[in-house]
Amino acid sequence: MDQRFAPISWLKEASHRAYLVGNQSRSKLLGVSYDPKDIDIATDALPGLSAAVVRRHGIIPVHVDDNFGVVSFTWLGNAYEITTFRRDIYDEEFDHIKRAPKQVIFVDSLEEDAARRDFTINAIYWDPATGRILDPVGGRYDLTHKFLRVIGDPDVRFKEDPIRILRAIRFKHALSLRYDQETRAALKRQAKLIHKLSAQTLKKEFQKIQNLPRYSAARRDMQRLGIIGRF
Length: 231
What we know:
Elements: H1 6-13, E1 18-21, H2 23-30, E2 39-43, H3 47-56, E3 63-65, E4 70-75, E5 78-84, E6 86-89, E7 103-106, H4 110-115, E8 125-127, E9 132-134, H5 139-144, E10 147-148, H6 154-160, H7 163-174, E11 178-179, H8 181-190, H9 199-210, H10 215-225
């Protein structure tokens, strides 16, 4: 196993379940290199236990968030985030400035953890030690068939956090995907919500879009959605 994925083994040695999720899983299935600045690990370990595991290996976490279950650290020049399986509950009024759930419930179920994520292609779990891939919401099918699909009700997911609208555009054009019908329709209905986000948040995500090789196509996409004038 790639040494950079050793934190997965550390957690498993401590009797926890742990998987790479997101960028690394997509890259594995696509046969491309992953971004070493973005290594995401999902685990059933509570944040204090995850932090204790990395400390036993001589690493001091950069950040431990007991509320959201996130432990961040750097190792071998890579940036890691270990996140506890969780369920996110949003206020029905949706605070678009904070963009955070009103309540986070830690769970033991990988399936529940997958259900709170944004797109199916971001909910593919991979154990690099065994090669096992867990795909509770069909992300592997969508990645193979070039679909970008929201998990759950796309209107609700975009209302929960409008930055997902720009993330949808970025993932589509970074990976040469196409929106599934429901996601496309919801994007058109909810695109105006990005005007509720802070300028700093928008700038950070838009810079990622600008760096895409297919930026001109992404820009046309934003023009069709009527949001390009925000930048």
